[in-house]
From TrEMBL:
PANTHER family: DISCO-INTERACTING PROTEIN 2, DISCO-INTERACTING PROTEIN 2 DIP2 -RELATED. GO terms for molecular function: adenylyltransferase activity. This is AMP-binding protein. GO terms for cellular component: plasma membrane.
Length: 254
């Protein structure tokens, strides 16, 4: 297999983990794939997909454990604002990602209320509120999570993607995971559901997830459940359906 002719491989849709980038490059470099071929990028349907991406020929940048999604496409503006006040955030500070550009849609079809909420942001009411969280560093976009997906447990704000990344890499029995919150005795509790590669030794895997998440995020999961591969609900484009996973968990718990 000769991959030396491949110049660009675009990757997006889900948060891109640094260890996945490293493993992919290590696996395919022996077949001629250039380490600069991977193009982490960011986009969304409301912007007819593409918003920002890594410049070709450069190494993937990782800062603070987050993979850079590169620079905005030509003619586009990406800004980071406080999601409550709408005030611009300084370089490196996490806030809501807003997008302006020629490929941003005019609004949602026959839904003026949703259009007003999402497409009329900014001082000129022409920016798209993406609902995504991130920051700009040296002109590059780093995506950290979703506003609506924040998990608030014991006064801590957790991005589910961060918890999932910890769970996914702490034990070889874990294939992928999903994290969400459920009602607890005094607020919200954290739950992790993981797809398992094996059917034995899961007690050790459960203990590893609990210890790793507690150490990395300062919150101990109330429960760690295992399901078979393919059982965590995902969209047709492969994104985790956290709300549906939460609904199934609560339904099973009675």
């Amino acid at each position: 297999m000769d991959l030396s002719k491949i110049r660009q491989l675009f990757c997006g849709s889900e948060p891109i983990q640094p260890n996945v980038v490293d493993e992919f490059v290590t696996r395919f470099e022996p077949f001629g794939l250039s380490s600069t071929a991977l193009i982490p990028c960011y986009g969304l349907a409301e912007a007819t997909l593409f918003v920002a991406g890594k410049r070709a020929g450069r190494q993937v940048r990782v800062d603070g454990g987050v993979v850079s999604c590169g620079v905005p496409a030509a003619g586009h503006e990406v800004r980071i604002v406080d999601p409550e006040s709408g005030n611009p955030c300084p370089d490196g500070e996490v806030g809501e990602i807003q997008v302006r550009g020629p490929n941003v849609a005019a609004g949602y079809f026959h839904d003026s209320e949703a259009t007003e909420a999402a497409f009329r942001a900014g001082p000129h009411r022409d920016a798209l509120r993406t609902g995504d969280l991130g920051c700009l560093r040296d002109g590059e976009l780093f995506v950290t999570g979703r506003i609506s997906g924040l998990i608030v447990v014991a006064g801590r704000n957790l991005h589910p993607q961060d918890v999932e990344a910890t769970a996914n890499t702490c034990h070889p029995a874990v294939f992928r995971s999903v994290a969400f919150s459920v009602p607890g005795a005094s607020g919200e509790d954290l739950v992790v559901v993981a797809e398992r590669r094996v059917t034995t030794g899961l007690a050790d895997a459960r203990a590893a997830i609990t210890a790793a998440v507690t150490a990395a995020h300062g919150v101990r999961p109330r429960d760690v459940e295992f399901v078979g591969i393919g059982r965590i609900p995902r969209t047709t484009s492969g994104k985790l359906r956290r709300a549906e996973a939460r609904r199934r968990y609560l339904e099973a718990a009675g």
